[in-house]
Amino acid sequence: MALPSKSGLPISRQTLIQLIVYGLVCLAIFIFPFILDNDFLLNRYARYLVLAMVAMALSLSWGYAGILNLGQAMAFGLGSYCMAMALKLRTVPVHTGAGGLPDFMVWNNVESLPWFWVPFYNMPFAIIAGIGVPVAVSFLLGWFMFKGRITGVYVAIITLAALVVANLLIIDAQSVTGGFNGITDLAQLELFGFTFDAYSKSTYFLVAGCLTVSLFVALMVTKSKAGLVLQAVRDHEDRVRFFGYDVASFKVLAFCVSAGIAGLAGMLYTVVLEFASPTFLDVSLSLSIVIWVAVGGRQSLLGAALGAILVAGTQSSLQENEFFLDTWMLIMGALFVLVVLFLPNGLASLVDIIGRALKRGRGPAQRSTSSPAQTSEPAEANVSKQGAE
Amino acid sequence: MSGHLQITDLTVDFGGFTAVKDLGLTINKGELRCLIGPNGAGKTTTLDLICGKTKPTRGSIKYDGKELASLEEYKIARAGVGRKFQIPSVFKQLTVYENLEVANCKNTGVFANLFRPGHSSHRDGLEKLAEFVGLADQLDLPAAYLSHGQTQWLEIALLLARDSELILLDEPTAGMTAQETHKTAEICNRLKGKHTIVVVEHDMGFVREICDVISVMHQGQLLAEGTADEISADPQVREVYLGSMGIGDA
Q1: Does residue A104 belong to any structural domain of this protein?
Q2: Sequence spans of domains, chain B
Q3: B141 to chain A: which residues are within 8 Å by CB?
């Protein structure tokens, strides 16, 4: 029922529904600015969309491949610093005279531009680095972990430790990274003749476009045979290995694709917030990402993305409300506990639960028309696994 | 004489405890061989050694003229060795069909699989396999919903989907009802000839139903080898394993 060849379509019915839902959500994101004509709020929503991208990337590695990456913010932060370096260099002639240095380097008595800053004069290089550096770092880390058969909670600990190391290194190298202050006072991103002002529709559309593309790229990965093998690895790693798959390389793939999307999101975060700071590589941000994904549904890309928008949105509106100033952390914690207790597959699984309830409500007459009663129920369960909305 | 699977002087030592000692086995192409023996005799360890889960201390395992002892697990699997584990191991969150789809893969490389759809065009072939083990009606059911016996059969079907020529079955009837055991014996008998099969089993009725030649292991060594009748008549075997009951009644 949920499979090809019977319907004659090249894709299954379930995949088709999933594609339509994903498409509609992306369309809604694009239409949004025409309803809300407020540049300040658009900037805020662009920020949520960026967070949705990181969450979606984590759902790819955690929900599909079973790799709980507590250091997701590392890829995110590295991407954001790459973009910040490029945008900082564009301000150099304005702030400190042609051929000069970024302002914070002058304050730190740096005399010449460090070698690794030089290529960031070139914007295409910076964009490639913003994705390539996180991917390369994740590749190395993933290679050592997964070739060494490290799994489960140990992966979580190692990724968390790697994040802390990256964070400390950036803070420590103050003369070339801006240390605690990060990199501020950036130029606006210019691409293909467009200038992306953080408080404008153009930036919002840039973020929305990147989110749409990466959502569909991730969806394609999960729908490929490699995606199926990854889900099998999540269920029973040894069994997959004894079918002749080199499990480590599949896990490295998922880890790297996830890091690439997180890196892209990091670059956009810099564009939207107009600075980069070590807080982007913070443990608390990294753990927040895990909470968003858990609340939204880790086995659904779209669920994770919407979870991020929902939770991050609630988080900041609670923070702004004087009444909740001291208690918003508690409220977020309670929400997390409730979801984990009652909806272990996140809010995305509500869709399947409601769908199944409706089916049951329609009674046995309905059921007898679809093939054996046994197969109609499981097809639903199948959806819950795939996490189609 | 050299068989399809040729094990010579196989020894594995776990920090002082020798689980398998100087084991030699010759199994011909298309043969179904049963490995029996008391608990701790090294039967499962022998299967672990063949499929690469455990590395031997010394000795050689030649399959189809190829030395397996030094290969990594996934390379041994690619050489055509399929293993069914004692604890049924399938992908519980995937459907029966998806389980078969994962196992059915000639090209196991990462990038080859990244650009290939998750649901391929060999549905017919996989459906036949599911039919073979009696799971045709459960194709779209997540494997978690299968009964214990069905899970065992699914795992056997997975090995067939993988196109493994040498199949290692570790206690395939553990926890099965008499009917299910009988059906498993039927599956084994139909595979005989096309696949070389090694079965580790305690259920003597089952062993009698499927086996030509039985190898008895005791304390990591080969104790006796022969047909069911020969084995049950062997006084040594009776003493260490079968007790006074004999094959067929155990």
Answers
A1: yes
A2: 31-39+71-242
A3: 374-375, 378, 381
Q: Round to whole Å and give the CA distance between A298 and A327.
A: 26
**Number of A:B CB contacts under 8 A?**
137
Q: Is A4 on the interface with B (CB under 8 A)?
A: yes
Instruction: Inform me whether the C-beta atom of residue B99 falls under 8 Å from chain A C-beta atoms.
Output: yes
Tens place of pLDDT per residue across chain B (250 aa): 467 888 888 888 888 888 888 888 888 888 888 888 888 888 888 888 888 888 888 888 888 888 888 888 888 888 888 888 888 888 888 888 888 888 887 777 777 777 777 666 667 778 888 888 888 888 888 888 888 888 888 988 888 888 888 889 888 888 888 888 888 888 888 888 888 899 998 888 888 888 888 888 888 888 888 888 888 888 888 777 766 444 544 4
Give the one of B89, B110, B123 whose C-beta lies nearest to A239's C-beta: B89
Q: How distant is the Cα of B136 from the closest Cα of chain A, in angstroms?
A: 11
Residue A224: count of CB within 10 angstroms of its CB: 17
SS3 B91: coil
| A375/B140 CB distance under 8 A | yes
Report angle CA B66, B71, B73 to the nearest 5 degrees: 115
The vertex-A302 CA angle with A67 and A376, nearest 5°, equals: 95
Q: How many domains does chain A have?
A: 1
- For this complex, say whether ipTM is above 0.90: no
Residue ranges of alpha helices (H) inside chain B are 43-51, 73-78, 96-103, 110-114, 123-132, 148-161, 178-191, 204-210, 228-233, 235-237
Q: Would A135 be classed as within a structural domain?
A: yes
CA distance linking residue A251 with residue B208, whole number of Å: 44
Q: Does domain B31-39+71-242 have CATH number 1.10.10.10?
A: no
For B111-157, give the DSSP string: HHHHTSBSS-S-HHHHHHHHHHTT-GGGTTSBGGGS-HHHHHHHHHH
Taking contacts as CB-CB distances below 8 angstroms, the residues of chain B near A239 are 85, 89-91, 158
Does some domain include residue A384? no
Q: By CB neighbour count within 10 A (0-12 exposed, 13-18 middle, 19+ buried), where does A326 fall? A: exposed
C-alpha of A188 from chain center: 23
- For an interface test with B, give the residue of A9, A239, A256, A258 to mutate (most B CBs within 10 A): A239
Separation of first and last alpha carbons in chain A: 18
Q: Which of A5, A242, A372 sits opposite B77 (nearest CB)?
A: A242
Closest chain A C-alpha to B97 CA, distance in angstroms:
9
* A331 domain-assigned: no
* Residue B114 contacts A where some CB pair is shorter than 8 Å: yes
- Domain containing A212 equals 40-283
Q: Does B103 touch chain A (CB under 8 A)?
A: yes
Q: B91 and A236 in contact by Cβ < 8 A?
A: yes
Contacts of A234 (CB under 8 A, 6+ apart): A64, A65, A66, B93
**Do the beta carbons of residue B27 and residue B5 sit within 8 Å?**
yes
